[in-house]
Amino acid sequence: MASQPGTAGDGTETDHMTWLRLAFKEWRRRPVRTGVTAAGVAIAVAALFSLLAFLRGYGQGVRREVERLGAHVLVAPKGCPYDAASLALHGASWPCYLKMRFLDEIRVAPGIAAVAPVFMSALHTSAGHQTVYVGVDTNLLLLKKTWMIDGAFPLQRDELLVGAAVARRLGWRVGERVSLPGLATNTATVRGLLRPTHGADDEFIFLRLADAQRLFRHPDEMTHVLIRLHDPNQMDRVVMQLRGCDAGMYLSVIPLAHLLRSIQTLVNSTRVLLACVALVAWLAAGAGVSNTLLMAVAERAREIGVMRALGAARGDIFRLLWVETLQVCLAGGVAGVLLAFAGAHTVETWLRTHLPFAPSDALVQWHWGLAAACLGCAVALGSAAGFVPAWRAAQLSPREAMRSPENVL
């Protein structure tokens, strides 16, 4: 070898480039094997990145959903609390209803700052859109303190407050008389437009509670009640009082903070399973990298022996194999991050069909910090998996390597 990279040893840029070129030769020599090894690393990195991005996105999404709702306690008809929370947050037609008379017993419970009765129903229009109507009264404004309204809140019969996404899709403006989607024989006046909340409220049409009960033929009924407390630390006491009142047998009293913790506990148990899957993928990738490098050492034993005979030190041989390993793992890491990014939508769609509660925000959130962490793990994987093959190559005797290359391992 004319360049004798092993004897350069002066730390110059030319010396480093020589070693990099030597390391890249393995890609050209065994492109399929090296590509398959990098693909294994890519799969492991994609699995890890998707897991971390999901845990980040899901936790933040659930917290934002509860914050946007503005309530501490949700009162709904008897049933599954996860279903009730999902209906209240995302909008749908409710299967059961509560009597308005229950409000009197709810309001007298100590510690309650605001009680907002709600009637919610959803209709599908001929265009395929779901239109969610939400009947409310002014008490809702005590919960939705972050709302910003262009116009005014509906106070008179047949007045509407329209979510930003609905107004944009239908082209509605304040003061306009419009036909109600799905209720074509009924019209109303747009009294106000809700500025974007970046949540489900943007997709809702709000009207007076009495108007919603009349339009959907459920007089003196509501779908759920939103409750805000003076002191959230007193939630357990308030919930016990509500469950113990006369109407308690008809009510499902759901403390949203407890529900949030329950959901997170459920996700944590799922996280263990996902972590095991990711760990298996990493172990398989590490084994693949180590096996590939051992095969490369066996095939190139005579070449390594020649390099040693020409003056290459053990550290030079170790560095050569080490750089080759890091190249494979870094290439696989970058490919894995890109794969996870490209498949994020598919992963999110699958997760939404299998989770008991899914926030409206993105479940899989891209973040540069996560990408850097995954690439760091790929480098660590390469360092660990490539140590034994690189060390074994560095220990080869030039004489044995050239005389019996098939027996070096």
Protein topology:
Layout: H1 5-8, H2 13-29, H3 31-69, E1 73-77, H4 81-90, E2 98-99, H5 102-107, E3 112-124, E4 130-136, E5 149-151, E6 159-162, H6 164-170, E7 177-180, E8 183-194, E9 204-208, H7 209-215, E10 221-222, E11 224-229, H8 235-244, E12 251-255, H9 256-299, H10 301-309, H11 314-342, H12 344-354, H13 368-394, H14 398-403
Parallel strand pairs: 4-9, 6-8
Antiparallel strand pairs: 1-11, 1-12, 2-10, 3-4, 3-11, 5-8, 6-9, 7-8
Secondary structural class: alpha+beta
Uncertain runs: 1-10
Major β-sheet profile: 10 strands, mixed
| Number of distinct beta strands | 12
The number of helices is 14
Using only C-alpha atoms, the radius of gyration works out to 32 Å
Mean of pLDDT: 82
Distance between the termini: 25 Å
Question: What global shape is seen?
Answer: elongated
Residue share in helices?
Answer: 55-70%
Strand content: 15-25%
Element pattern in H and E: HHHEHEHEEEEHEEEHEEHEHHHHHH
Count of spatially separate domains: 2
Could you please describe the fold and organization of this structure?
- The chain has 409 residues and is α+β, with helices and mostly antiparallel strands.
- It has two domains: 9-63 and 263-407, no CATH class; 68-256, no CATH class.
- Helices cover 55% and strands 17% of the residues.
- It has helices at 5-8, 13-29, 31-69, 81-90, 102-107, 164-170, 209-215, 235-244, 256-299, 301-309, 314-342, 344-354, 368-394, 398-403; strands at residues 73-77, 98-99, 112-124, 130-136, 149-151, 159-162, 177-180, 183-194, 204-208, 221-222, 224-229, 251-255.
- Strands 1, 3, 4, 5, 6, 7, 8, 9, 11 and 12 form a ten-stranded mixed sheet that branches. Strands 2-10 form a two-stranded antiparallel ribbon.
- Helix 2 (13-29) crosses helix 3 (31-69) and helix 3 packs across helix 11 (314-342).
